[in-house]
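Repro:
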Amino acid sequence: MPEGDSVHRVAARLHAALAGEPLTHADLRVPRFATADLTGHTVLGVTPRGKHLLTRLDSGLTLHSHLRMDGAWYVFAPDQKWRGGPAHEIRAVLANAGATAVGYRLPVLELLRTADEDRVVGHLGPDLLGPDWDPARAAANLLADPARPLGEALLDQRNLAGIGNIYKTELCFLAQVTPWTPVGDLPDPAATLPRLAAAAQRLLAANTGDPGRPRRRNTTGSRRPGRELFVYGRAHRPCLRCGTPVREADQDGRPAYWCPRCQAGPAPAPEPTRRTG
């Protein structure tokens, strides 16, 4: 599932290509909305909300999409060949005189009244990259279930919207606790959680970058190849801080990474070494 900074960049690209222009062609290739005719309507803007994309039209309708694991939006010039996958994976086409936006493998695509957007995004917590960002509210949401593991709580978009598995892992490292540490067991959680929420916002904001030229995600500040992330994706490799091999285990269906020396708290027992021969 994409992180909030990636969705923010996608929204910026779509907004730059579509906003303020009438659609000359629109094709929604999902059965429920296949007959919807959006041609002639002007795109007012494309707004990210957490990991959701809201394309608002002057007709009072919003095209809601979510990328989840495999979805993608691409923008092409009028004479440019579409390169996002086979044609049967296309779910949406929005074109104006100067650009064409093509959505591939979109698992969520629906039209709804703009006035009804809360139906699909109203459950979300404060958006890390949105105008409603509020670290105190995000911290209060996290602390509302003190027995919940921190990693799961950070991924719950109802607490704060925009964190994916990479930032979850890196934030647990920065907090010096394992992803399985209960929220209430953090050192002074009432003080730690607002700082952690603020750190999450700074990391995502720093990684939004240029919408047209996305860069490799970085949480360490190092530009040396292979040192952009503290622990995510570094299973069995040395921790960048102490040199201890980073461990990996499943948490709620996703891989979690942590340094057993730098991060205190509960963790799954290492898998036993299999003997051969």
